[in-house]
Amino acid sequence: MTPDRHEIALALRLADPALSRFDPLPRIIAFDDFDRGFCGWTQLVGNYEDTLDAMHPGYAQHTQAMLSTLPMWDFGSHGGIDGSYALKIATRPQAGARNVAIKRLTFRRRGPIRLEFYFTFKPEANELSLSETDVRSVGFLYDLQTGDRDGDAWRIMPHLRFLNALNGEHVQKWQFKRRTEPFAPVGSANKTVTHYHLAPEGWEDIAGGGQKLCYNEIPTKVNWHYCRFDFDLATMQATGLACNDRELDLGGFDSMRIPAMRNLWCMLNLAFFVETDVDKRASLFIDSVCLSGDF
Amino acid sequence: MLRESQAAVVARNEEWRGASATEPYEAGWASEAIVFVRALKDAVGAPGRARVELSPDGMHWVAEGTEFPLPVRAGEVTFARVSHFGTWLRIAADLPEGAALTVLVTWHLKA
Q: What is the ipTM of this complex?
C-alpha cells in the first residue's frame, strides 16, 4: 500500500530529532529553536504617542529577551534540550514585576492551530535556598483578530498561566483570564489606545488544574517541561491544553473578547510571560516552540 | 550562516539618579557590543560618566574598564564599544547628588 502524504510527513517528522518531540498539525507555521537565534521573539512594548511617558507602567517595565545558556553561578551553563541556547525572559527584581516576549504574525486561514513549546522557570539564584515559591507564574497568550471581511469582528485574547506561587504559597495550578481591562486613550490623535490585559486581577482557575511540576532540589537545576495549547481560529475557541503527562479540562475556559480594532485584522500574535512573587528576578526559559496549523 | 546580530533596549524612559544600572543582559553568543545611551530629556545637573560592567553570574559585577560620558541634552547620544566580555553585560553610573537623566539604553550585539 502506498502511504499518503500525511503518513510520509509524519514519518519524516518522527525521523527528525528536532521535530520528533513535537506533535504538529499538518502545516508548520513556525518552528523556533533558539540555537538558531531569536526567531522573531522580541520585547512587548506598550503603546505610546508623543511621549514615552504615555506608556502604561505595566508595559514600561518590559525589557528585551535574551539568548541564554542558563548559566549558573555554582556549576556553569545548563544549556537547552539539544543545544546551548534557550530564549530567556527575565523580570526586574521587584515583587509582582513581569516581562513579556512576543512574536507577531497574521493567519492565512481560520482553522485549528496548535502551539507547542518546551519551557522551564527559575528565580535568580542569589540565595542558598530552594526558592521554589519565588517565581509567581509563567504563562502564554494569543492576541487574535478576525479578518476584515469576516462576519464576526472580534479581537480574541486567550490567556493562560501556571500560577506557581502567590504571596509565598506554593499554589501550582493552571489559570485563565477572560476579564477584560478598561481601554484608555494614548496621546492626542485618537489613533492609539492601551489596555493592560496582563493586569494581575481577574485570573480564574482551570477546573482540576492543579499540577506539581518538576522543580528539582536547588535553585540552579532545571528540568524542561512540555506544553501544548490547541485553538480553533474558525470558532475562536480553545480546544485543548496539555502539560507533560496531564491533559487539562478546558470546559470552563474562555478568552478575552473585545470588539475588533481598526488596525489588527488577521492578527496572530503569541506571547510568553513571567512574573516574580518576590524582590528577585524570575526567568522563563523557552527551549523551542512549534506553531502549526491544519491547512 | 549570517552572523547573529541583535539590538536590545534594556532601559527605556528610565530616570537615573544616584547609583543606577541597566538590567543584566546575557549575550554569551556575542563577541562584540556597542552600548548607546540617548538622553530623552535634558539632564538635571551634570550626570557624569557611565562604566561598562561584567559579571561571572549576572549577580556580582566588576568594572570592565571602559567609561564614557552620559549624554546631557535631549536627543544627545553617547556610546562605548566592548568586546571579549564573557556572558553578562550592563552599564552602571553614579550620578552626583541632585543630578538626574532620563535614558534610553540600547545594546547592539554581534556574534
A: 0.96
Do A187 and A175 touch, CB atoms closer than 8 A?
Answer: no
Burial A211-242 (b: 16+ CB within 10 A, else e): bebebeeebbbbebbbbbbbbebeebebeebe
Q: List, as ranges, residues 87-106 from A with C-beta within 8 Å of B.
A: 88, 90, 92
Residue A9 lies in a domain: no
Residue A22 has a pLDDT of 97
Q: In three state form, how does the secondary structure of A30-70 look? A: EEEEHHHCCCCCEECCCCCECEHHHCCHHHHCCCCCEEECC
Whether A66 sits inside 8 A of B57 (CB atoms) is no
Classify residue A87 as exposed, middle or buried by CB count within 10 Å of its CB (0-12, 13-18, 19+): buried
- For A197, the domain range is 29-293
**Do A73 and B59 lie within an 8 Å CB cutoff?**
yes
CB A145, CB A279: distance < 8 Å: no
* A52: nearest CB among B13, B25, B27: B13
For chain B, how many structural domains are there in total?
1
| Structural domain containing residue B18 | 5-110
Q: How far is A25 from chain B (nearest CA, A)?
A: 29
Grid cell listed for A63 = 525589557
Which chain A residues have a beta carbon less than 8 Å from that of B40? 52
What distances in angstroms separate CA A24 from CA A28, A98, A110, A245, A268, one per listed residue?
7, 30, 17, 17, 17
Q: Which of B9, B28, B29 sits opposite A64 (nearest CB)?
A: B9
Is the sign of the CA dihedral B58, B60, B63, B67 positive or negative?
positive
- Residue A192, in any domain of the structure: yes
A23-33, pLDDT tens digit by residue?
Answer: 999 999 999 99
Which parts of chain A sit beneath pLDDT 70? none
